[in-house]
Amino acid sequence: MSPIDFVLTVIGYILIGIGAFCQIVAGMGMNRFPNFFVRLHAATIAAIGGSFVPIIGCSLLALSFEELGDVRFFLAGGGFVAAVFLLILAPVGSHLLAKAAYFSKAAVLQPKVVDALEEDIRKGEVHE
């Protein structure tokens, strides 16, 4: 095992560990947070920290596993592409879910301290 492969392996395992930690923290947040919108934030953390980061780690592990031959580059490339799509699409999906729940009034916004979007709607600055 070359030194570069060793470094890629260590970084890959560290990223997988970070992803597992993010999944655990996001799961606790889903149970403890008070309303839909804050829980959606925890779900987005699970999607980004708990999925994006370990996919990058697995891609690095695939790059360091020399026994795969040239297939390792395809595995790593597919993992990197999937991670980039996840990084782009997960926040967009969460935003659209939150916007739909807010405008349809399907989710109760309690406890509510400040609702800046409601103020902008009253002023006519935001259209539904």
From TrEMBL:
A GO MF term: sodium:proton antiporter activity
Pfam families assigned: PhaG_MnhG_YufB (PF03334)
Keyword vocabulary terms for this entry: Membrane, Transmembrane, Transmembrane helix
TM regions (residue ranges): 6-28, 40-65, 71-90
Claim: Transmembrane is one of the keywords in the record: yes
Protein name: Cation:proton antiporter
Native source organism of the sequence: Ignisphaera aggregans
Origin organism lineage: Archaea, Thermoproteota, Thermoprotei, Desulfurococcales, Desulfurococcaceae
